[in-house]
Amino acid sequence: MIRWLLIRTAQALATLAAALVILFFLMRLVPGDPVTAFIGDRAMSQADVQRIRDRYCLDCSLPHQFSQFIGRAFRGDLGTSIQHQRPVTQLMAERLPATLLLGGSTLFLNFTLGLALGVWQAVRKGRTVDRLLTAVSLVGYAVPSFWLGLILAWMFAVRLHWFPSSGITSIQLSSEAGPIETALDIGRHLVLPVVTLSVVSIAAMMRYQRNAMIEVLRLDYIRTARAKGLAESTVVIRHAWRNALFPILTLFGLWLPILATGSVFVESVFGWSGLGLLATNAIGGRDYPVLMGSAILVSTLIVLGGLITDIGYMILDPQVRHR
Amino acid sequence: MKDLFIDTLRKVWALRAGRAGIVILTLAFLSAAFLPLITQSPIVQANIEEGATRPSTHHVLGTDQLNRDILARIVWGGRTSLTVAFLSVLLSVTLGAMVGLVAGYHGGWLDALLMRLVDGALSIPRLFILLLLLALQQDIGLTMFILVLGTTGWFGVSRIVRGEALRLRHASYVQAAEALGARSHRVIFRHLFPNAMGPLLVAATLGVGDVILLEAGLSFLGLGIMPPTPSWGGMIHESREIMFTGWWTNVFPLLSIVITVLAVNLVGEALRDVLDPMNA
């Protein structure tokens, strides 16, 4: 088991290294020079331009640049933001909690409501509920998340004033507000972004859970359980659902990129200053180090998520554990 | 191969969802192909001062902030959006199939190397790759945009095709071909490729929906296809200032996106049901 864990960890590291290699070549491939883009209309002497070029080692040989890039990335040095004139790592560390809060809340909603709806659909397969939820999830999957966010903001913030339309905390929130008051305020700001992000990601969750559950409900041991005279709810929850959960674990790995992509749009719509907003703001400012840093951080999180999923598999599934 | 295609199409048609998807997609294609011939140019501005006007008999879907006919722009934009989606998916499916077949057939170190790289690429969300590729560009042409989307969308496809190739690699008919002295490219293109078509077709169909949504998302971030070339995502982006006072300026392009993506996904799922009964 330890051996398996070591191999799997090594694999994750190799994947991360591959991602870095790809990002490096992507950076070299992009036509247009980051320095030229950075300077833009600013007046800058030739000497200053050269100093920047030297600092980022833009005229070094490719292998040299590559080793520098990889070495820095593994040390956690992702360069300096052009817009903010601060280390990218520092900026991202400030923004990470907001994104984790948004992602974590969405994750929670997906794993509670999404799974429950999926199970419900499977049990009522082919009936009205199943069809309706299938239709809703299909449409939810086809609506661009930013548009949905804008509509929700308009309806529930601008028209109904139920929730704030942007930001993480209210400006009016006094600095001596207690922790409960602050938490409630953040909670109110969290509702619309989480709902938007959930609609996009919950469809996938529901769909997989539905299909996995239908698969399991077909099996012999379920018929046996029913034949024993167990209550239907016991059969569904105790017998079937447990085994239908495994495919969902795999989905977690697929689902993280959806979440990362979704949060870019949702954060941008709701002014939620997390990593996604940092990245979208970097587009206008042509802040290449920030964009590169975000890509590196996101792929690290995704690789880590995959690793955790597999370890979870091992703990939960005896078949994998004893292999 | 042709028979297989027609047979698959017939089976998809037999499913209600698949039939609906095919009908909608055909209509979308026909209107993108032919309606631009009879509508006015989407770039012509009738009367800028008048701005956005409500749907009327003169402009069935109203006009946008620059007083351009929305119906005309949707039709022309559909041409752009659908062309981008289909060509880029065609490119990524071709690339993915080639890498997947080579990796699966060759095996060994080449397979290990290619799949490690694909793993790495798959761990970077496509949007972030696109941000890195597009953020420094002022204005990217349509061809370049298609190339960028096509070359960033094949990683998942190559995984699927590799799996199929691995499975078929030891099938008796492939070994028979090898025993007869067939060269590797012949085995790959004549024997492995046609049999990996099913999953490939499903991935391609679903990929089209992804690209349409991605194009809309990139437009929202101010990247991708630039005005005055109309695209559905661009229309929503350009009219964002009057999104609520002039709802028709973005609801109609949005509906075009939603309906098309929905149709594509319906066909994709129907295809999966037909081609891969185990996963249905």
C-alpha termini separation of chain A? 8 Å
Rg estimate of chain A, integer Å: 24 Å
How does the overall form of chain B come out from the CA principal axes?
Answer: elongated
Alpha carbon gyration radius of chain B: 22 Å
Q: Bin the strand percentage of chain A.
A: under 5%
Q: Which class best fits the helix and strand makeup of chain A?
A: mainly alpha
Which sequence of SSEs, written as H and E, runs from N to C of chain B? HHHHHHHHHHHH
Give an overview in words.
The complex is a heterodimer of chains A (323) and B (280). Chain A is mainly alpha-helical. Chain A has 14 helices and no strands. Chain B is an all-alpha fold and 280 residues long. In chain B, helix 2 (16-38) crosses helix 3 (70-106) and helix 11 (232-238) packs antiparallel against helix 12 (248-275). The relative contact order of chain B is 0.16. The model of chain B has no long low-confidence stretch (mean pLDDT 81). The chains are: A mainly alpha (323), B mainly alpha (280). At the A-B interface, helix 1, helix 6, helix 7, helix 11 and helix 12 of A face helix 4, helix 5, helix 10 and helix 12 of B.
